[in-house]
Amino acid sequence: MAGGSMMEKEKITCHGCSNECQMEVYIEDGEVMDVTGNRCMKGYAYAQETVNMHR
Fold first, then answer.
1. pTM beyond cutoff 0.85
2. What's the pLDDT band for 1 if we cut at 50, 70, 90?
3. CA 43, 17, 26 angle in degrees (round to 5)?
4. Which of 25, 27, 28, 51 shows the smallest number of beta carbons within 10 Å?
């Protein structure tokens, strides 16, 4: 990884729809790089919003 940055992983529960997916969010330099466990695109958007709120 360039510049010695580390990728972080956060586990969150999505509340974007009724599925309530258990997701893993991969974050590098404060930006969402990948989301796994989401069953719809609302989950990806929810992960981005959640990460941005905590930064």
1. no
2. very low
3. 15
4. 28
Query: Which residues does 37 contact at the CB level (< 8 Å), separation at least 6?
Result: 21, 22, 23, 24, 43
Identify the helix (H) or strand (E) that includes residue 52.
helix 41-54
CA 30 and chain centroid, separation = 11
Per-position DSSP letters for 21-50, written without gaps between them: -EEEEEEETTEEEEEES-SSHHHHHHHHHH
Asked if residue 54 has pLDDT above 80, the reply is no
From the list 26, 28, 30, 47, the residue with the least C-alpha distance to 38 is 47
Q: In what order do the strands lie in the sheet with 7-13?
A: 7-13, 22-28, 31-36
Q: Ramachandran region of residue 33, left (φ > 0), alpha (ψ -120 to 50) or beta?
A: alpha
